[in-house]
Amino acid sequence: MQYQSTRSDISANGLQAVLSGLAPDGGLYVDSSLSRRPFPWDEVLSLSPLSMAARILSHLLPDFEDMDEIVRLSYTNKFDTPLLTPLVSAGDYRILELFHGPTSAFKDVALSVLPVLMTKARRLSASSEKTIILTATSGDTGKAALEGFHDVEGTGILVFYPDGGVSPVQHAQMVTQTGENVRVCAVSGNFDDCQSGVKRAFAALSRSEELKRLNCALSSANSINIGRLAPQVVYYFLAYRQLLDAGDIKLGDPVDFVVPTGNFGDIFAGYQAKQMGLPVGKLVCASNANRVLTDFFANGVYDRRRDFLRTASPSMDILISSNLERLLYIASDGAYAFVRACMNYLASNGVYTVPEDIMSRIRQDFAAGCCDEETCRETIGRVWRELGYLADPHTAVALRVTDEWKGTGKAAKAVVTLSTASPFKFPGAVLEAAGVMPSGDEFAQMEALSRMSGLPIPAGLSGLKEKPVRFTDVIGGSAIEDYVMEVIRKGEV
Ligand SMILES: *Cc1c(COP(=O)(O)O)cnc(C)c1O
Fold this sequence. Notes:
Blueprint lengths: L1 E4 L5 E3 H7 L8 E2 L10 H4 L4 H12 L6 H9 L11 E4 L2 E5 L9 H5 L2 H11 L5 E7 L3 H10 L5 E8 L5 H8 L6 E6 L3 H16 L2 H5 L2 E5 L5 H20 L9 E6 L4 H11 L4 E8 L4 H8 L1 E3 L20 H8 L4 H14 L1 E3 L2 H10 E5 L2 H15 L5 H15 L6 E6 L7 H7 L8 H12 L5 H4 L11 E2 L4 H10 L4
Parallel strand pairs: 5-15, 6-7, 6-9, 7-8, 8-16, 10-11, 10-15, 11-14
Antiparallel strand pairs: 1-2, 1-3, 4-5, 12-13
The protein binds pyridoxal-5'-phosphate.
Pyridoxal-5'-phosphate (PLP) binds next to helix 12.
């Protein structure tokens, strides 16, 4: 199996693609044969969650042997429910809760698997190089990656986050991370500055002779890595199975999914589930006030030349949505020169335009909507008061877009809304929206939220306050490259 780069005719096998993350031309790896390779999507629906995951992952990553073992190592005793991603009802909403892993964010679904895949890939490709993970995070990826990679042999991990751009809980989760091979550092600026800085450092260091001499190779835990994306395909099947079990649908009925979107990884995984045959109707891309994707789906112009807004849903505060590149590649039948031109134009001019024939193909599978801050607050409050369901701000954005989507009359009978974070990660915003003035620090707020809802504080969050802070560095985006080299040289990861 070969994965193609989105930007040239470079390709790689699954092991190389997982180990390197990004293609050497700066493109992302894509499995362009997925929709043509037969997959028994209906048979896997009757399997247990772990067996289902193993079958789906073997199809997406056939170069890995023993997928059953990989899945077992990844998930056993990490999630608080054997369903992994339970589907719950609140009024007419069907909500797929993706936050039952160790860090209470949906990133856990994939980042529990990625370190195991990388360890396996190193062994299968007989690599003696140490894999150094560089990650830019808007809050959730960082902690989930640290949790997945800490003390994993043969790896080191550096996480960069925008200074002041993550929630206090997310901040506390990262800077208290234990492990001998971890480093966390703030970067001045917003998430796009941070992500661009890490990408530049990544590109520069990939050519570094010193790094080679130190027997280290860089990789990424961001959703640009196919090993990140593949595990996310599984929960679309798990959702479908749970709708079947509940009698909400019959086998073969289409299901729409509304996905709170940032880097377009989560929703692209849904597209891959559809390519594998799962009866997915529309994938509805839900954005917050940073509505660059909503505008793109409406008019075919991707235009990041606008203010970056800090919202209550920071993991969706993104103006450069990396994984959209994969969709462009597939919707243009692998026209990598076109994709490369778009990405170059975006880098130099902040905008690109996609021709109407490609847009109309994209619109067969995708729709989009957005929700501003005021409406997000109202939605959290309304859903809590009327339905007794506590939604975090990311989920609330998607619930609101779900209402709008149903209102168009174009929705399938069954619509699933993805819930990407526990409300306990954003206690202040959730309390306020539910009509309780938050007081005290975030830890007091978590307790208030727990009292109000009767829900327990998730295990990974409750002990945070007592943990010692290990990391306090703040650097500029242009200093990332030197910083990484220094840390590696000193053997600190
Ligand atoms: C990462 C994240 C998202 C966005 O997911 P993408 O795959 O980047 O589109 C949404 N909500 C939360 C809570 C997240 O952590």
